[in-house]
What we know:
This protein is mainly alpha-helical. It contains 15 helices and five strands. The strands form two sheets. A three-stranded parallel sheet has the order 1-2-3. The radius of gyration is 23 Å and the shape is elongated. Residues 1-34 have low confidence and may be disordered. Bound molecules: tryptophan (TRP).
Amino acid sequence: MLCASIEPSPPLRGASSTQISVVMLCDTIMSERSNSKIICPREAITAKDIILTGDRPTGPLHLGHYIGSLRARVELQDVCKQYILIADMQALTDNADNPAKVRENVLEVMMDYLSVGISPEKSTIYLQSAIPETAELTMYYLNLVNVGRLSRNPTVKNEIKQRGFGEEVPAGFWTYPVNQAADVSQFKATIVPVGEDQVPILELTNDIVRTFNRLYKTSILRECRALTPSIGLLPGTDGSTKMSKSLGNAIYLSDPSNIVAKKVKSMYTDPKHIRVEDPGHIEGNTVFAYLDVFDPDTAEVARLKEHYQRGGLADGTVKARLIEVLESFLAPIRARRSEYAADPAEVKRLLKVGTERAREVVQRTLDEVRDALGIVRL
Ligand code: TRP
């Protein structure tokens, strides 16, 4: 018998003793939930907070990543302690057949971080697989969550559907939220910047934290809150709601000028704006959506919008402006990137130093966890 996380648990009719203990664990989880407070407003973050966030290294990062998370990391590294993980073990949960893809993207993602201005001194950037204690913690946590709860996780359910796994879902993929709970709680992180889609994973994290603290009569683990992006998703160049690698509609931070120009020229605008004289629509017009986000001259953008709606402004003219705006945004990022790209050993060293710093913190937490659990020490 598996009980739901939101529905009331079924009666215990005919339950065996093991079933009863599963239900009891689940009941406690339900009563311990407090979802309403899981989202943290940006203004509430103080120097006392600890941030943990990261990315799966499955491809280069794009403008959507920048707007959705990288920009906030650059800002928050001056506010409080910040850990950033390159989640290569999590990336393997659905790429076991292609580990080279994960390996090749580790330093790429590190270079993306460094080139947008995430400082390896202010932030602690680390490689997930180089901290084996996280895998150990994951094993302890797997005992604190039941199978029914995992199968109902909306984030994973969606991802299983997107990837067409069906019954063939790798067990590692299915349980990755538990591994993510370990990523977060091993630093006693209080704030986790993530997209809306990841919030159920943080609810699970807090459930595990509460269950651990209650079962082992301790208070060593801390609950976290989500910091979700303040603006909506940056659309893809094709006008679809999300920029993503798999949709092939992304502009990468590492794209050279000619590729950026080509992508902007092919951008989705207003399909009804056929002749220059025709009045055009700015709602759902990707070029204007990007100008709103990237063009610092808001008065000029307002003027262009007005002209476009009135008629007489060509898509090509607006696109030419966007190309210029994106160039001035990307040029310094590209310049820093090429410096790092010329010295991969240094990039690796920076990741190693961050990983060592992170591992010390994780080892201290694991010592506390083993003590709380009463693991036999030899
Ligand atoms: N699941 C995140 C993603 O797909 C990556 C990630 C792994 C993460 N561990 C994390 C994010 C811990 C925040 C906190 O991008």
